[in-house]
Design goal:
It is a single chain. The protein folds into 2 domains: 182 residues, no CATH class; 129 residues, no CATH class. The chain is mainly alpha-helical and 352 residues long. It is globular. Strands 1-2-8 form a 3-stranded mixed sheet. A 3-stranded antiparallel sheet has the order 6-3-7, sandwiched between helices.
């Protein structure tokens, strides 16, 4: 999650001429929340050393420090990210809104200084998030509002670890730390699916290596299996999007659009209850097959799973070395923006 880089732009004095007054108010609120988070942050080593710290929290924070130090050894730009901890006092940090037209897998975007266009917008106030979703739904958009427990400011601030991010199991916590630090190491402007999918692969592959060097083969295997599941789901969602794109390209009337989306939903359910679900190692399908087609939800599902196989192939091409993977991608992406990022990656993959 990286939307708060826009807050950094505001706090660093970016001109408000680039944004409307409502956006200025939004950024001011986000800036206020970020300020509160930073002011409440305590150094993790101090918390670990504090005898009053609950043992479970102490153990978790030690693991975070170990993962952060490992990221630095890999050459990732860890900086001061996750050297402090903030208890936000609630179980949900923010709600993230995404939207898309009912007849197009194309994200509604918000434009901010520095980071460019983003296909999501975060709300610290749940009522504001719900109201924004209702306004877009009233205009005919599919909407998807989801909770988020972590974010990155791309190194503009020393991001603290938040209490909302430590409810995960140990492997997922380590992968989250490495994922967020990966954003500091490589960021392509206006290329959210590229950035998030890159960080997804780095997070899990680095977590796998982290646990391997600690002799924890079970957690290392878990990290590897989780990434493989993400790749499988990425393929599934890619196929579903391709089917819907054929429907949408036909410019259907309202009735045909509804029936076509319903048919795509039936196909998705068959896949999830059949071959896709059977191939997953760490995920359970749950109620996923019962969800109707929602373009905004699909965009949300694919942002973190876009061409993961390409990133993982690049990782293998670099000798399964995360350090070399990240360094070579930084060189390859120098000067890239938007869709150019994936075009460059696909071009070098085709040259193998």
């Amino acid at each position: 999650m990286i939307f708060l880089a826009a807050v950094a732009a505001l706090l660093l004095g970016a001109s408000t001429a680039y944004v409307a007054s409502a956006d200025v108010r939004y950024l001011a609120r986000a800036g206020l929340e970020e300020t509160r988070i930073l002011r409440s942050a305590r150094p993790i080593p101090d918390i670990v050393a504090d005898a009053s710290t609950p043992p479970e929290l102490r153990s978790t924070l030690r693991l975070v420090l170990d993962a952060r130090e490992y990221a630095a050894r890999l050459g990732l730009e860890a900086g001061e990210t996750y050297t402090t901890y903030t208890d936000v006092g609630r179980d949900t940090l923010m709600l993230v809104l995404q939207a898309a037209p009912r007849d197009c897998i194309c994200a509604y975007t918000w434009k901010w200084p520095i980071v460019g266009r983003m296909p999501y917008k975060g709300f610290f106030d749940a009522k504001e998030g719900l109201a924004a979703a209702d306004r877009l739904a009233a205009r005919g958009y599919d909407t998807f509002l989801r909770p988020a427990g972590a974010f990155s400011t791309l190194g503009w601030f020393n991001d603290p670890l938040l209490s909302t991010a430590i409810t995960r199991d140990s492997m997922e916590l380590v992968a989250t730390v490495l994922h967020e630090i990966a954003h500091n190491s490589l960021y392509v402007k206006s290329a959210t699916p590229f950035n998030e999918s890159f960080a997804q692969v780095v997070g899990y592959r680095a977590a796998q290596a982290f646990f391997e060097q600690r002799g924890d083969t079970a957690s290392a295997r878990y990290a590897s299996d989780r990434l493989q599941d993400e790749i499988v789901l990425g393929g599934f969602y890619g196929d579903l999007v391709a089917r819907l794109n054929v429907l949408y390209a036909s410019k259907p009337d309202s009735a045909t659009l509804d029936s076509g989306r319903a048919e795509a939903g039936r196909w998705a359910r068959e896949q999830l209850e059949g071959p896709v679900g059977a191939s997953l190692r760490t995920f359970t399908i749950g109620r996923l097959p019962d969800r109707p087609v929602n373009n905004a939800r699909l965009i949300g599902a694919t942002i973190y799973r876009s061409k993961l196989d390409l990133f993982d192939a690049w990782y293998a091409r670099q000798g399964r070395d995360v350090s070399k993977m990240v360094a070579s991608l930084r060189e390859l992406m120098d000067g890239a923006e938007g869709d150019e990022a994936f075009r460059r990656l696909e071009a070098v993959a085709a040259d193998r």
